[in-house]
Design a protein that fits this description.
about 450 residues, Rossmann fold, six-stranded parallel β-sheet, 24 helices
């Protein structure tokens, strides 16, 4: 077992039996599901909207080279700048280089998972640049020294009392502060930072090939302040965020908002075009490798709404931090082995019940559970599974190919359970559960006697 798999196993084991954590997540996801149900009711035909969105993303991803070139031409025509980054390190170095060229001392950031993916904050801080997260959830994460717990709701795992305690430790505020008071404290601390920042950094929810513009969806005014007040705005955009036409927003903005938070539209929906101070960094970081896989490239259709995380029983049990990745839950389990290597991250694809709920709620119809199976197959082909696991499955296959061998295996298993031999083998299971009592007879024997 590699270090990442061991870390996941230990963290998941701890969180699965943390009842306080599970209660907070259950409450927050329950609120989310109720809001989404109300949001979906506003669609005249949700299934048709999903199918249309999937078609648009299919068109984009299968002609991505053409749309990327069109996007670049239109950004340049508007006076902006386009940079291409093949790796996370290259993207971070581009931002650091721009910061040095323009004498940047302070950066404010809008919420962006792609900047988490490339570990931008540590790179800027190592270069002597102060970085401030301005999304409230991300700001709380920064104060606590934690990565985001969820791609849409960074502090889903915290309740008001825990956040109030963090603000008390950092700012001396009351531990009984209300949610409104906590938001007010954050606004007061951040307001001056927007005015004194030399660079604003954002991601992009969408990028439009036909106009060379990006679209941002936020529920706080920080996104517009980040991109408008500093003289320099750098948008870091994964190449899969392209859509062909700006008119596609009529479909994608409501889909993203409804599946992300239950709103019909987020509060602030902003279109940003080119100007002398506008720089777009188009990030690959493993995406073209996934693009080359015709069987699984539709994983790039994802619009990062977070619905699959909120639906996943595994995610809700083990929590976002257990995954050890930028993208958690079914989404992270699906794409991380492609972006960061099967050998180190194949274990995530096994962290699923394969119930298919993630695919049921996906607004762009990605068959996520099937891709998790594909990832498992890929890991076996690359011999990422353990020799013991390989032997066990070969024995299982041998037994399943013969009714007599299958029946013999069942008898031996029941005997082993009666003699107590099964308990050491099922140590991981019995750590948190009781081992079932062995049945008195096999089902086939019971059926024969009816």
């Amino acid at each position: 077992m590699n270090a990442n798999a061991l870390q996941f196993q230990r963290a998941a084991d701890a969180k699965a039996f943390d009842l306080r954590h599970r209660a907070i997540v259950a409450k927050n996801t329950g609120t989310y599901h109720a809001a989404v149900a109300r949001g979906l009711a506003r669609f005249a035909d949700w299934e048709t909207a999903r199918r249309r969105a999937a078609q648009v993303k299919w068109e984009t991803i299968n002609h991505l080279d053409r749309y990327l070139e069109e996007f670049e031409r239109n950004v340049l025509a508007r006076g902006g700048h386009v940079h291409w980054a093949e790796t996370a390190t290259e993207a971070s170095q581009l931002v650091v280089s721009l910061a040095h060229q323009h004498g940047v001392r302070k950066v404010v950031k809008s919420k962006s998972m792609v900047t988490e993916e490339i570990h931008l904050n540590p790179a800027l801080e190592a270069a002597g640049v102060t970085v401030l997260e301005t999304d409230l959830g991300e700001y709380i994460c920064q104060l606590r020294g934690e990565p985001p717990y969820h791609i849409v709701t960074p502090v889903m795992h915290l309740n008001r009392e825990q956040i109030a305690q963090t603000f008390h430790e950092k700012f001396g505020s009351s531990t009984d502060a209300t949610a409104e008071q906590l938001a007010g404290i954050a606004c007061e601390k951040l307001r001056a930072e927007f005015l004194s920042a030399d660079m604003g950094i954002s991601g992009a929810n969408f990028a439009f090939a036909d106009t060379g513009m990006i679209g941002l969806c936020t529920n706080e005014g920080n996104g517009r302040l980040t991109t408008a007040l500093p003289k320099l705005h750098v948008a870091i955009v994964g190449i899969e965020k392209l859509v062909p036409r700006i008119e596609d927003l009529a479909l994608f903005w409501p889909l993203l908002a409804t599946h992300g938070t239950g709103q019909f539209l987020t509060v602030y929906n902003t279109l940003i075009g080119g100007s002398e101070g506008f720089h777009v960094i188009l990030l690959d970081n493993g995406r073209t490798k996934l693009l080359a896989d015709a069987e699984q490239r539709d994983a790039l259709h994802c619009i990062r709404c977070g619905a699959c995380l909120n639906a996943c029983p595994v995610y809700k049990t083990v929590g976002g931090h257990s995954y050890g990745t930028t993208y958690q839950g079914p989404l992270g389990s699906m794409i991380t082995p492609h972006l960061r290597g099967v050998a180190d991250w194949s274990h995530l694809s096994y962290a699923s019940s394969l119930c298919g709920k993630c695919a049921d709620v996906c607004p762009v119809h990605i068959p996520i559970h099937h891709h998790l199976l594909h990832n498992r197959r890929n890991s076996v082909r690359q011999h990422c599974d353990s020799p013991l696991q390989r032997i066990a499955f070969r024995l299982w296959l041998w037994a399943m190919q013969s009714p007599g061998r299958y029946a013999l295996g069942g008898k031996l298993a029941r005997l082993g359970m009666r003699l107590g031999l099964a308990k050491p083998l099922a140590k991981a299971w019995t750590k948190g559960r009781d081992l079932p009592e062995p049945p008195r007879e096999a089902f086939r024997d019971w059926w024969r006697n009816q």
